[in-house]
Each structure stands twice: as C-alpha cells, then as structure tokens.
Amino acid sequence: MRDIYLYDDCPVLINKLGIKEQKLLDDAEADYVSYRLRELAIHPLKGKGHFSLCPWDEHKGYP
Question: Domain count of the chain?
Fold first, then answer.
C-alpha cells in the first residue's frame, strides 16, 4: 500500500524543499531549527511564559 506522505520514488517524507535524500532532509531540518531557536533567543515571545494544556492545571494556581 502506497504511503501518501512519502515520495513515490523514495522513502522520504514529502517536504517543501523537494529534498528526496533523508540525510540532506535531516541536515536541512537541523539547520532550520537552529536558525529559529537563535531568532527566539534574540527576539523572545512576549507574554507570561506559561500556558496550560490541561484544564485541571488551574487548581495549581496557573491562569
């Protein structure tokens, strides 16, 4: 059965960069994540710095 998330001619996830070699895709992803983390370190997001994923966290004093 064909996986709709992989390229037809290779077992690599379809991606916006069109990379069909897993090692190159891994390297590109690592570079992109490093760049975005550096951006966040220089320009942090504004806000309280906390968010609750679970409604039951409210009893712990979280907003």
Answer: 1
The string of DSSP codes covering 1-63 is: ---TTB-TTSSSB--TT----HHHHHHHHHHHHHHHHHHHHHSPPPS-S---SSGGGGGGT--
Residues 12, 19: Cα–Cα separation, whole Å: 8
pTM: 0.67
Please state, in angstroms and as integers, the Cα–Cα distance from residue 51 to each residue in 7, 34, 38, following that order: 37, 24, 22
Domain extent, residue 4, equals: 1-63
Walk along the chain (63 residues) and give the pLDDT tens digit of each residue: 889 999 999 999 999 999 999 999 999 999 999 999 999 999 988 877 665 566 655 555 545
How far, in Å, CA of 10 to CA of 56, rounded? 45
